[in-house]
């Protein structure tokens, strides 16, 4: 039957099936048929993906303009496929003449499809979009549980989520690191690397063509100078291309060398930005974090960004470009059947690769979780080395670490097994595609439709095309792994700062250092409220452990913001001033002093970085630690070890006091500053503290009442409330909580003094 006739002519047959049937019937497959069929198949593939997404989860979680990504892609491809018909109006299968009823029906169906796809495409860009997340129906029961319970990203529910979720958001975070803003040299390098990548694509096309010309010229007996020129051109192109995949050629090596500078810029930017962000997070977050997991996430996340940029820009994009170029070349030069074989093979390969890789994502994510747990357990155990020794728990810790490693290796085996399945599937698809194309090309050569050189060209080109395609699965797995590795780092970036400077915040103008707490309410654990009922001047707070003494200092330093009321310094609400200016005027000696793994001098210098050695020594003398430092073999250059573990508790506390003295703040906060000192050292240092705190507002948190007897005002806290206030003598006369604590501590001190006097003669006797 001719065009417009036959049982299928008047029916609205599916474009792919109808065109394929007509192509077989005419014993010819036109190029436009292939393009139309490929685009239509891709659009239906997107539609199936859309149905799967709608079945498992809501398509979009935020209100957006227009369709989501999948819907917009589907209707864009459908509209593009219908427009291809206009390009092929000279084809014998075109119904423009409307000679009979069948052609009119075909034209009517096409016009209806064209109008519908056009309207859906336009409406997809202008539609108001889906409602906001809180008013949406969560179809997936598991996702509804996640929404209600607000689980963390590390839960089982999140582990089953595709790593390509929020892909555009993640890509937007990567783009700024690929384009170095403010650095014109690196921007020029980026553009030059892109040009080199385009040159590689052109070289990949010309290498098989020149190889074909060599074979044809040898077969035809071409002159030597012609053959020599062709061979030299081929070798030159091969030198630029490299081993066939563009991985070892001159152009690729030059691009890789130049891209190193961009990678270093990216790595530096990510690490510095993340480091600054972590320092901007609240004390609440830092108290709840696990150091091992955070460091592991930062390490893997920063390295994965370079992997993503390199593989997406210089591996995935070039591979897809090579596939498209190959389809166009073989369709136009050889036959549309070759383009169809390449399209089917590539589509099947990519589909199976993506499907299997997405399926095995849960194993990779579980392996990362187990790895984090093992590393975190090791770090936690080593940081508590002394505690492990105290309780003879080495075997227990080793067994716990061994269990964590075993769980990690079980997950690792699942990852390796699923990887083997993926590789075998890819090899099968590649083999079948190569077999079909080679048989078809050999048939055309025997029919004298193609030359021997064309068979060589096809074999060379298809192997050259399959090489990056074979790596495509690896690229996809690496990119997917990098996205998995980046998830925890993105979570760190998304941690919001709990305490922020308000807009247009001013610097703190310190005059007399007057501090006021006005009706302050605070709670950082559920069910606990801390209340200061009215305005007052704070000097000293005393009380039993857990009464809220240290919390007041953290509120004043703005580690937390109050839930009600306000804190003022010289009449200025501290929530309305810049945190940097507030903290510049406040010096703190914490209860639990942690030093940097550096020298004693540098730990003291941390109070004021530009300080000279002389100023450091003066601060150490004021803290009554100068002589002790000089007794060390290395003096001020003595390394204190990690967290200052090489020093005793009293030595660490005095280094912290010296650091605060060096800072020279107008307000001093002493949080159990002498709690780690013995009685004799405490007496020696109290005189130094009195000199340092003179003419400064000082808040002392103390459990040992002997350190606060000279305070202008003492606040006694119990269960988060101020139960007594006044001077030392006044509180003793009241006979309340303070008097009871004073009597109890005096009795304890007398007992310790008698015990110390009894032990002295005994020790002397033993020595003699």
UniProtKB/TrEMBL annotation:
Broad class of where this protein is predominantly found: membrane
GO terms, molecular function: ABC-type heme transporter activity; ATP binding; ATP hydrolysis activity; heme binding
Sorted UniProt keywords: ATP-binding, Cell membrane, Disulfide bond, Endoplasmic reticulum, Endosome, Golgi apparatus, Lysosome, Membrane, Mitochondrion, Mitochondrion outer membrane, Nucleotide-binding, Secreted, Translocase, Transmembrane, Transmembrane helix, Transport
UniProt-annotated stretches for the region Disordered: 745-768
GO cellular component terms listed in the entry, alphabetical order: early endosome membrane; endoplasmic reticulum membrane; extracellular region; Golgi membrane; lysosomal membrane; melanosome membrane; mitochondrial outer membrane; multivesicular body membrane
Reactions that this protein is recorded to catalyse: coproporphyrinogen III(in) + ATP + H2O = coproporphyrinogen III(out) + ADP + phosphate + H(+); heme b(in) + ATP + H2O = heme b(out) + ADP + phosphate + H(+); coproporphyrin I(in) + ATP + H2O = coproporphyrin I(out) + ADP + phosphate + H(+); uroporphyrin I(in) + ATP + H2O = uroporphyrin I(out) + ADP + phosphate + H(+)
Membrane disposition: Multi-pass membrane protein
Superkingdom as given in the UniProt entry: Eukaryota
Chain ranges passing through the membrane: 29-51, 72-95, 107-125, 308-330, 336-357, 428-446, 458-479
Domain ABC transmembrane type-1: 191-481
Annotated ranges, domain ABC transporter: 497-744
E.C. no: 7.6.2.5
InterPro entries: AAA+_ATPase, ABC1_TM_dom, ABC1_TM_sf, ABC_transporter-like_ATP-bd, ABC_transporter-like_CS, ABCB6_N, P-loop_NTPase, Type_1_exporter
Subcellular location: Cell membrane; Early endosome membrane; Endoplasmic reticulum membrane; Endosome membrane
Coiled coil spans: none
EC class (word): translocase
Keyword Membrane: yes
Family that this chain belongs to: Belongs to the ABC transporter superfamily. ABCB family. Heavy Metal importer (TC 3.A.1.210) subfamily.
PANTHER family: ATP-BINDING CASSETTE SUB-FAMILY B, ATP-BINDING CASSETTE SUB-FAMILY B MEMBER 6
Subunit structure of this chain's protein: Homodimer.
Protein name: ATP-binding cassette sub-family B member 6
Species per Swiss-Prot/TrEMBL record: Catharus ustulatus
């Amino acid at each position: 039957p001719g065009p417009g006739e036959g049982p299928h002519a008047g029916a609205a047959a599916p474009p792919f099936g109808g065109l394929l049937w007509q192509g077989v019937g005419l014993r010819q497959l036109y190029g436009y048929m292939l393009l139309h069929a490929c685009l239509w198949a891709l659009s239906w593939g997107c539609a199936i993906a859309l149905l799967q997404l709608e079945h498992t989860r809501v398509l979009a979680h935020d209100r957006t303009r227009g369709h989501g990504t999948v819907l917009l892609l589907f209707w864009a491809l459908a509209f593009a496929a219908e427009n291809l018909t206009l390009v092929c109006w000279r084809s014998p299968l075109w119904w423009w003449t409307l000679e009979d009823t069948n052609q009119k029906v075909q034209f009517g169906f096409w016009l209806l499809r064209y109008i519908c796809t056009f309207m859906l495409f336009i409406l997809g860009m202008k539609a108001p979009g889906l409602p906001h997340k809180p008013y949406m129906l969560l179809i997936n029961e598991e996702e509804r549980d996640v929404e209600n319970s607000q689980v963390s990203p590390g839960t089982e529910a999140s582990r089953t989520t595709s790593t390509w979720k929020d892909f555009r958001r993640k890509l937007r975070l990567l783009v700024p690191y690929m384009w170095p803003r403010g650095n014109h040299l690196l921007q020029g390098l980026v553009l030059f690397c892109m040009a080199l990548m385009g040159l590689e694509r052109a070289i990949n096309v010309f290498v098989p063509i020149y190889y074909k010309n060599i074979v044809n010229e040898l077969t035809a007996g071409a002159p030597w100078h012609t053959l020599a020129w062709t061979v030299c051109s081929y070798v030159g192109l091969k030198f630029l291309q490299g081993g066939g995949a563009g991985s070892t050629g001159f152009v690729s090596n030059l691009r890789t060398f130049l891209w190193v500078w961009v990678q270093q810029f990216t790595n530096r930017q990510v690490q510095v930005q993340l480091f600054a962000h972590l320092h901007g997070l609240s004390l609440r977050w830092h108290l709840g974090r696990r150091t091992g997991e955070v460091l592991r996430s930062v390490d893997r996340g920063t390295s994965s960004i370079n992997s993503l940029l390199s593989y997406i820009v210089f591996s995935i994009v070039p591979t897809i470009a090579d596939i498209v170029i190959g389809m166009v070349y073989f369709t136009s030069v050889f036959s549309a059947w070759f383009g169809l074989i390449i399209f089917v093979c590539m589509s099947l390969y990519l589909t199976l690769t993506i499907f299997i890789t997405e399926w095995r994502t849960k194993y990779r994510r579980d392996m990362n979780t187990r790895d984090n747990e093992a590393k975190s357990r090791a770090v936690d155990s080593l940081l508590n080395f002394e505690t492990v020794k105290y309780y003879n728990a080495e075997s227990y810790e080793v067994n716990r670490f061994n269990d964590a490693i075993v769980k990690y290796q079980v997950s690792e085996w699942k990852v390796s097994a699923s990887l083997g399945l993926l590789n075998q599937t890819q090899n099968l698809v590649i083999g079948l595609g190569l077999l079909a194309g080679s048989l078809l090309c050999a048939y055309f050569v025997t029919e004298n439709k193609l030359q021997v050189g064309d068979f060589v060209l096809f074999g060379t080109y298809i192997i050259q095309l399959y090489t990056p395609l074979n790596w495509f699965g690896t690229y996809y797995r690496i990119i997917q792994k990098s996205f998995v590795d980046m998830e925890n780092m993105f979570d760190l970036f998304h941690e919001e700062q709990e305490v922020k400077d308000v807009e247009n915040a001013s610097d703190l103008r310190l005059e007399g250092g007057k501090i006021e707490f006005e009706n302050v309410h605070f709670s950082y654990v559920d069910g606990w409220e801390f209340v200061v009922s009215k305005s007052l001047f704070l000097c000293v707070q005393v009380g039993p452990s857990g009464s809220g003494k240290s919390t007041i200092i953290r509120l004043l330093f703005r580690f937390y913001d109050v839930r009600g009321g306000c804190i003022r310094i010289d009449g200025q609400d501290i929530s309305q001033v810049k945190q940097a200016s507030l903290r510049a005027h406040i010096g703190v000696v914490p209860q639990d002093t942690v030093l940097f793994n550096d020298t004693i001098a540098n730990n003291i210098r941390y109070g004021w970085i530009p300080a000279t050695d002389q100023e450091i020594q003066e601060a150490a003398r004021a803290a009554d630690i100068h002589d002790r430092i000089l007794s060390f073999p290395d003096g001020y250059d003595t390394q204190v070890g990690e967290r200052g573990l090489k020093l005793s508790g009293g030595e660490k506390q005095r280094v912290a006091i010296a650091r605060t003295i060096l800072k020279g703040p107008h307000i001093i906060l002493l949080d159990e500053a002498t709690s780690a000192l013995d009685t004799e050292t405490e007496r020696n240092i109290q005189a130094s503290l009195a000199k340092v705190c003179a003419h400064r507002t000082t808040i002392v948190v103390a459990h040992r009442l002997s350190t606060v007897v000279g305070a202008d005002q003492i606040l006694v806290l119990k269960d988060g409330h101020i139960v007594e206030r006044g001077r030392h003598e006044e509180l003793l006369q009241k006979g309340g909580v303070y008097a009871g604590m004073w009597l109890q501590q005096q009795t304890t001190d007398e007992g310790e003094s008698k015990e110390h006097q009894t032990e002295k003669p005994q020790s002397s006797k033993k020595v003699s």
